[in-house]
Hints:
single chain; alpha/beta; 2 domains; 14 strands; 18% strand; globular; binds adenosine-5'-diphosphate
Amino acid sequence: MTANATRVLVLNSGSSSLKYQLLDMHDTQSSSGSAAGRLAVGLVERIGEENSRLVHTPLATGGERRETEGAIADHTAALKAVAAELATDGLGLDSPELAAIGHRVVHGGLKFTAPTVIDDAVLAEIERLVPVAPLHNPANITGIKTAQALRPDLPQVAVFDTAFHTTMPEYAARYAIDVETADAHRIRRYGFHGTSHAYVSRKTAELLGKDPAEVNVIVLHLGNGASASAVAGGRCVDTSMGLTPLEGLVMGTRSGDIDPAVTFHLKRVAGMSEDDVDVLLNKKSGLIGLCGDNDMREIRRRIDEGDERARLAFDIYIHRLKKYIGAYSAVLGRVDAVAFTAGVGENAAPVREAAIAGLEEMGMAVDASLNAVRSGEPRLISPEYARVAVAVVPTDEELEIAQQTYALVNA
Ligand code: ADP
């Protein structure tokens, strides 16, 4: 790597999509990771279909967002199309300024507790984890192989969604099921969104002017997928997602916690297949199952119009959230901050207000005027008198992946 190689390309490959960001780490470090370091962002969607779409924004040149539609057959073609867009802006992937490519990898099992430079053995291990992440890891592997083919000389780094949660104590990570069966099939709670929980818990400590080692934070990552985590002194001690992202909070389309017997019941009584139940719980449950909408903006609009189904869906969502805040307060013993993040957490003031309402005895409160402020910056929304800081801390998984990648290749 050359001395002036300060760029990192971050790739997040889904089954039919490829999201990317090109960052200049020199700039992100000097500006504590503001948009200053972001050179280009974009995404390719509907890969493999006739009407694939590439949306590219060259931030470095202040250029207009460019959108192209047309068949993009596979991930290799998608990355080539992205490389061509970047080259148009003078940001080609053949540049000596590119230091590394950082890949979001969803499942790292127990082996990967930190970002890892990818070699054949690492790739084989990510492949070995496909049975516990059948939807995500294959797409991540495709992304890695595609990038390796494009720049075989460059370090490729895997940053795992599960890594931050590997510090969970055994009693939080194990399900209370037969140990031999669990171990034979690697059944345990892994947790996801770890990159976000790591970033947001650290940023929350920064907002409080404290060292992460000194603070206990409950992070509520509320996007379409949603998870909570209990972070004690910078280390995750519990999180709400489990073997898969289905466990825990009520999400956009996932049920979160249910009695596992519901699944046998659906099979025995409703005659549903395994796949039917899988689709029901992952795609047709949560907010969309409860009221037909999974966008919190739409749900709030319907509530304002007096829609009872939307109201009930919202109340169920909040009730679950409150239960996790209570549970993690007990797990942590002392809570210094509750941090809201991701699409819902960052934007939906009514969700933050309702989730914290009635928790004054636990030292938690939300100031209505602070909560109403719209901003992309980390901020406190609790009144001065409250013992626990309640904060909105925008997440930035791409920046976290880029920073971890850059730190590793420069170590
Ligand atoms: P993911 O990365 O899991 O797809 P995001 O973190 O982008 O999700 O969150 C998307 C969700 O955020 C949307 O489904 C919507 O419910 C919510 N959301 C986005 N903007 C707003 C807003 N202004 N007000 C309320 N909710 C919002």
